[in-house]
Design goal:
38% of the residues lie in helices and 11% in strands. The protein is of the alpha+beta class and 157 residues long. The protein folds into two domains: 104 residues, no CATH class; 35 residues. It starts with a strand and ends in an 8-residue tail after the last helix.
């Protein structure tokens, strides 16, 4: 349906007033994190070069960018939040999904491990524990477990 102005200057997206749209606060937060230097989260996003796809931040042919964001992302399921698949890349259709908070916690970049943790991870996998079980114990992703076990991270000197 897109976003359109009514005769009184009010913006509607998907037939709902802009500020009442279910994705409005999520969309605003994304914009603030990336472009508003006063945002508490700017240092972790905009200051690190994380950007928002042009279609999601600029009016295009009279369409509000929230309409494009809504169209590309689809409806948000209960308990899901906006997640960038690759935390080094920006907000764009090919890099964003709706994810649970548990999934997001597993993908955090600030998870701290020690060499001893890496040894424990390798031992647990050798003992037959699943990647998911090990990942849950340490608060990391299954992929990170694999990378540790294959020696991509936390190599023994």
């Amino acid at each position: 349906m897109g976003g359109a102005m009514s005769g009184k200057g009010r913006v509607f997206v998907d037939g709902v007033h802009l500020t009442d749209h279910p994705l409005f606060n999520i969309w605003c937060g994304m914009i603030k994190r990336c472009y508003r230097t006063y945002s508490i989260d700017y240092k972790n996003y905009g200051a690190k070069g994380i950007t928002v796809h042009r279609r999601w931040r600029e009016y295009t042919e009279g369409e509000h960018p929230l309409a494009a964001f809504s169209e590309d992302m689809g409806p948000r399921m209960d308990g899901h939040t906006l997640e960038r698949v690759d935390g080094r890349r920006g907000y764009m259709p090919s890099n964003c999904i709706w994810a649970t908070r548990t999934t997001q916690a597993r993908n955090r970049t600030n998870t701290k491990l020690t060499m001893n943790n890496a040894r424990q991870i390798r031992k647990m996998r050798e003992e037959g524990l699943t990647r998911q079980t090990v990942a849950d114990k340490f608060g990391i992703s299954r992929e990170h477990v694999t990378d540790i076990c294959r020696g991509r991270y936390w190599k023994e000197d």
